[in-house]
Amino acid sequence: MSRNPTTPGARRPIPEARSLRKARTVVAALTAGATALVLGSAAVPGGSAVAAAGPGHSTGRADVRPAVAGPRLARVLTAPITTAECLTKYAIHCYSPLQYRTAYNLAPLYARGITGRGRTIVIVDSYGSPTIQHDLQVFDQQWGLPDTQVDVVKAGNVPPFDPTDSDMTGWAGETTLDVEYAHAIAPGAKIVLVETPVSETEGTTGLPEMMKAEQNLINHGVGDVISQSFGATENTFPGFAQGRTSSLTNLRYAFKDAYAHHVTVLAASGDNGATDAQSNGSDLYPYKVNSWPSSDPLVTSVGGTELNLDQQGNRLAPDSVWNDGYGAGGGGVSAVFARPWYQDGVRKVVGAKRGTPDISMSAAVDGAAWTYQSYDPAHVGWGPVGGTSEATPIFSGIVALADQKAGHRLGLINPALYALAHLPSRLSGETDVTTGDNSFAGVTGYTAGRGYDLASGLGTIDGTAFVKALALTG
Known about the structure:
Elements lengths: L15 H16 L2 H6 L8 H5 L9 E2 L1 E2 L16 H8 L3 E2 L1 H7 L3 H5 L8 E7 L5 H12 L7 E4 L11 H20 L4 E7 L3 E2 L2 E2 L1 H13 L5 E4 L1 E4 L12 H4 L3 H8 L3 E5 L22 E2 L7 E10 L5 E7 L10 E7 L8 H4 L2 E4 L2 E4 L5 E6 L7 E5 L2 H19 L7 H7 L4 H4 L1 E2 L28 E2 L1 H11 L1
Parallel strand pairs: 1-8, 3-18, 4-6, 4-9, 5-6, 9-11, 11-13, 13-17
Antiparallel strand pairs: 2-10, 7-8, 10-12, 13-14, 15-16, 18-19, 20-21
């Protein structure tokens, strides 16, 4: 992580053009031998890396789960309330998209016409939401955002929506959060919502349908960035306990296709800190685990931070790792994937394995995002939501802004993220997160500190500087 030049011991600032040339040189030098390592799958042949990760138990199915967190209010509100009122009423901070825009310093970009115009964000969710277009319009009207038409693609035989089905309403809530906040950050970008059916296929639940849908859109030229706010614990994939990883690695074809077509793929790092859910979807592993697709080297893993903002969106304190009792930002090392080449510079932290997250954005429930939903007739209105499901669509909007700034797709951005860490923060736009940890549910996790760590990755961003730097180096 680049250090602020005013910090004792930090290197002296260097001229902007020279610094950005240096980052581009780092990327070019690393790229020369990249493909084979990035496209590689299992960490060690024969599954020895799996065995080293602990006595994983699998029931033969890996359930895909939305990475969304937060208390469900007994009664949703007819209108959002201020941060101060939210603290008084619910003992948590609640933030609007306008506060996030200020916190991430996006106004200078919007003033220059950088809104994501001409770029497409693909959002993938099971079932979707039958009211997403209406709900987005209400959301936009509340915050003075421009309306947009959501292009809904049904990938397969999506069953009729049942508001009494908790699985469907859970995914509808995820869909609402994803669409509303991707649009809020990149209001000029086109939103394509892919709704998939959930069924038992090849020992996994939902993932094959999602990967097929993504591959189909990529091959048809649809999408510059794909936002995935879901995950399944690596340990739950069939064969994991026996040292076999093919049930997971055989699903990577969509990401390989995205890599070949220069499409950026994002995934939420999870909401359970250094652990995650077992196959039953409710119990957590009593030791450190990681989840896929966040752990995939061809994916940018988005972790979670906690913001402390005033009503205008100004920071009252530096961001910390999300860990507020409701959940904690996912992070750790993969039991399946070896360290990708772009993480060689942080090998002292990740060891021989792929480390997550790569970057972090707002995810705390104590700092939750206001969303509007009407898919459930019994709960129509406004409610606060958090989780790395929030962080991921927010960052998808940032990537769309950078794509527009660059004038082309940026593709796999991870090499650029780690190369930019060599620059001063004022140029890279990457801001170190140095406080907090992701210990959760009795599992000791990782502590944030100076530089890259397994709690916050490379840290968070200043949007204006980051978009400029990413567009130049990506």
